[in-house]
Amino acid sequence: MTDLYRIAIVGSGPAGLSAAARAAQLGISHVLLEKTDHLSDTIYKYQLGKHVMATPSQLVLRSDMDFDAGKRETVLGTWERQAAENRIHVKYDAEVTAITGSKGDFALKLKSGETVRAEQVVLGIGTQGNPNLMRVPGGDLPHVQYTLDNPKAYVDEHISVIGAGDAGIENALGLADDPAQQNVVTIVNRSMEFSTAKDANIKALLAAEAAGRVTVLRGTTPQKVEPGWVTYDTRDGERRVRCDRIIARMGSAPPRRFVELCGAAFEERDGKKERVAGTGIRFTSDERVSYPELSRTFESTVPGIYVIGALAGYPLIKHCMNQGYDVVEFINGNMSLKPADEPILIEKFKEMPGSRSVDEWLEYLRTRIKIFNGMSQLQMREFMLDSEARTYRAGELVFERNTPGSSLFGIADGAVDIEVNPTDPDIKVTVGKGSIFGEVGLISGRRRGATVRAKMGTIAVEVSRSAALKLQSTVPSAKQAIARISTERQLLQLFGSGVTADDLDDVIATSEIITIPAGKAVINEGEDGKDVFVIRSGSMIVEKMIGGKPVFLSYLPAGSYVGEMSLIAGGRRTATVKAAVKAEVIKLQGDMFEALLRRKPDLLAKAKRDMAARQDVNAYIEASKDSFSGAVDLYSSVSNFLIGEGIGEATDVLLIDENLCVGCDNCEKACADSHDGLSRLDREAGKTYAHLHVPTSCRHCEHPHCMADCPPNALHRGQDGEVYIDDSCIGCGNCQRNCPYGVIRMDSTPPPKPSLLSWLFLGTGPGPGEPSKAWSYKHSDPAAEKPKKAIKCDMCAGITGGPACVRACPTGAAIRVAPDDFLSIARLQRESS
C-alpha cells in the first residue's frame, strides 16, 4: 500500500522549499513534489547572473533555509546544499495532474501514473507556468518568447521587452549590459509609471535609459507583430519599430483550472463526470488574475489544502519563505504563531481607536472599504505595509485645495465633506463610508482640486500613489470600483443640472471606458449612431468634409462630451471626431442617456444648448466654404499643424505670430531676468506654419510626461495649471528625457548679476537676459561644484502680471493660450466678422 505522508508539498519554489525544510526540522513525514529535475524552477529560469533581491528589507526572514540578496547561482547553490543537509524528502520529475480526496486522505495523481497519498496538501506552485500571452496579430510568431535564460546568448539583435515589471526590467538590463553584444534594446510599459517594479530596478532602468543603453517607451502597447518588425500604439500614434526578438514579460495568472478542481467532488451525469457545484478551491472573483480564497492560516476552501507563495498573491521571495515556515507550524498545531510582518502592522495600528488586533483591523478595513473587498486578508497584509491608517476628528482638515498630493483615501467609517466651490466653503459634497476620495489627483497627477474635512469622526486608509497603481493592476475589482466612482463624479461635474448619483446608475452600469489611439476616430461623419462620448483623458478634434477634404472644426479637451446631436436631433453623424493624442473616453449607451434626458428636463435643455452651438459652427462652415474658403482652409491647416506639434495634450501654450515678431528677443530676456538669469524658452527653435510659430517652451500638458518618473516628486501642477519644479529637484534628468518636446534642460544657476542700472551707467554685468557662459565662468569659482537642476517654464507663477515673455513683447506677437480656446472655429468667426 502507498505510504500516507503527513504533508505533501507541491512545488519546490521558495515557499514550498521553506515548508519542506520546516517539516523536516519538526520530524514530520513529508514529500516535496517537483515537476522538473531541479529545485525551484522559477528561480532556476531566472537569467544567468541575475541579482536576486531580498525585499522588503524591513521584514525579518523566518525559515530554516537561508536567503540573502545575491546572484541567482549563489541562491540556488545555498538551497541545494541546505536541502540535502536538512534531509528534505524531494521527489523530482513528479508533476501533479490532479488532487482528489479529503482532509486526512488526499490522493495526488502524478503525470507518470503514480499516486501519492497525504493527510494534508500544501500548494506552492506559483504562477510563472501560466504567463499572460501576447494576444495581438502575429503574437504567436516563433520569435516571441516568454522567458530569458541567458541574455549573453543574443548578439547584435533588435530586441523588444514587453512589460516593465521586475522581470521585464531585469531582462532588458541583462540584454543591454554588455556593449560588446551590440543589442538594441527597447522596453515597453503600458502605463506612464512603473507601478509593479521594485525601486532599485526602476532606478537601474532609468540610469540605463540616461546612458542610452535602453530605449523606454511609456504609455505604449503592442498592436501587431511581423517578422523583423513590431507596431506599437503610443500616445502620439502608431510607431513601427525594427524587432528581431520579443521577450514578453507581461505577468502571469494562477493555473486556475487545475487549482479549482483540487479536492472537488464529482458526480455522474448523462455518462459524464461533472464537478459538484460549490466543491473545489474557490477564488475571490471570476477575474483571470484573482487568487484563491484563504484563511489566515493559508487554508483554502477545501479543508486540508493550503496555498502559499505567489499563488496566494505574495510574489516576493521573503514573503514566500515566511509563509512556507508558518503553514507547517499551523498544520502542526501552533495556532498562536503570528506572521513575521505582525510587529510592523502593530506599529501602524497603534494609534487607532479601540482594542482590535491586527487581524481584526485588516478585516475591518477590507470589508468596509469597497475597493479593498476583492483582496484576501493575506493580500491586505502586504498592501497595508505601503499604506497608512488614519483617524480624523469632526471638522479636521484632511487636505487643502491646491496642495500637492496624489494619494487616494478610502473611508472605513464616518464621512468627509468636499468643499467644491473655492469661493464658498459652505457648498459641499459629502462622501461616506465605503467610498473613496482623492481619485482626481491619482488619475491626473494634478494638485488637490478641493478642500476636504472630516464631517464627523472618521477612519480612513491613505493609499500612496504607487500602492494605488499596484492595487489596480493586481486586483481587478479595485480597478473597476475606482473607474466607476471616477466616472460617476466626472459625469456629475460635467452634466450638473440637478442630476444625482442615483440618476446615473443605469447610464454608468452600461458605460464603457475605451482607449482611443492617436489619430483614430471615435465618431465618423455620415455613420449611424447615437452613443455619447465623454473625454476622460487626452483630447479630440472635430472635422467635417467640405469640398472633398477634411476641415478642422474644433478641439475638445478632457472633460468635454460629444455625440449628443444625433441623439437629440436624429439623423446621421454630422462630423468626424478623432483623438488628437492617445485618449480615454467614456462611452455612454445612447438609449440609456436618452432615457436620462427624458427624466431630467434641465439636462435636456443644457444638451440642446450645446447642440445648438455645434450646429452654429456647422452652419458657419457651410456658409463660408465659398466666401471665406481661403480663411477656412488656412485655419484648418494651421490647426492640424498645431495638433501635430503636440498642442492636443497641452493646457497652456506659447505661440508667436511671425507677422508681428520683430526678433528683438525681449521675450527670452524677460524670461531670464525673471528666473535667476536662466531663460525657459528658445524663441528661434521650434516649427512654423504660415505665420504661426511654436517656440520651444513648456506646453503644461494635461498628463505631463515629465512627471512620470521624478524620484523626489519635485514636479507639481499649480493652481493655474502650470507645471513647475520645486527645490527638491536632484538633477537626475528623468524629466528632460521623458519630455517629447525638448522644453526641459539641465543647468546650474549662474552667479548673481549686477543690477540693470549698474549695467546701464557703469557698464558692469552682462546686461538683460541670460548671461553668457563666458561671463558666468569668469564671475564664479571654476573649481566649485555646480550641481545642475531641471529648468523649465513655470508660467511665471507668483509673479504679478503673468508670463514675462508675453508682457515684454512690444508688438503683441507672443501670446499664451489654452488650446480649447485657440483651436476653435469661434475664433475664425470673430476674425472674419
From TrEMBL:
Keywords associated with the record: 4Fe-4S, Electron transport, Iron, Iron-sulfur, Metal-binding, Transport
PROSITE patterns (UniProt xref): 4FE4S_FER_1, 4FE4S_FER_2, CNMP_BINDING_1, CNMP_BINDING_2, CNMP_BINDING_3
Superkingdom classification of source: Bacteria
Domain Cyclic nucleotide-binding: 371-471, 495-614
Keyword flag Transport: yes
SMART domains in alphabetical order: cNMP (SM00100)
One MF term in the entry's GO annotations: metal ion binding
SUPFAM superfamilies: 4Fe-4S ferredoxins (SSF54862), cAMP-binding domain-like (SSF51206), FAD/NAD(P)-binding domain (SSF51905)
Stretches assigned to the 4Fe-4S ferredoxin-type domain: 652-684, 721-749, 787-820
InterPro entries documented for this protein: 4Fe4S_Fe-S-bd (IPR017896), 4Fe4S_Fe_S_CS (IPR017900), cNMP-bd_CS (IPR018488), cNMP-bd_dom (IPR000595), cNMP-bd_dom_sf (IPR018490), FAD/NAD-bd_sf (IPR036188), RmlC-like_jellyroll (IPR014710), RnfB_subfamily (IPR050294)
Name the UniProt record assigns to this protein: Oxidoreductase
Source species: Sphingomonas sanxanigenens DSM 19645 = NX02
Organism ancestry: Bacteria, Pseudomonadati, Pseudomonadota, Alphaproteobacteria, Sphingomonadales
